[in-house]
Design a protein that fits this description.
Elements (H helix, E strand, L loop, with lengths): L2 H11 L6 H12 L9 E5 L7 E7 L2 E2 L1 H20 L1
Helix pairs in contact: 1-2, 2-3
Length: 85
Amino acid sequence: MTELEKILAKMSTAPKGVRFSELYKVCEHFFGPARQSGSSHAIFKTPWPGDPRVNIQNDKGKAKTYQVNQVLEAVQKLKDQKHED
């Protein structure tokens, strides 16, 4: 199991325990470099129309639980789109 797979598994089973750096790493892998970073927020562009971004926030080194869940949904949507192609 790769490090990325371990982080994704942790995100699924224990979203409260995910570190911001881990969530950032997942977002970078799936969505490329952050469009905005440097503050407590990092914004990543997604490849679909509508609301094409993922916004994550550093909360004293931890990721916010609802944002972990949003990233999991976005990653799943991305994987589903790739399987359709």
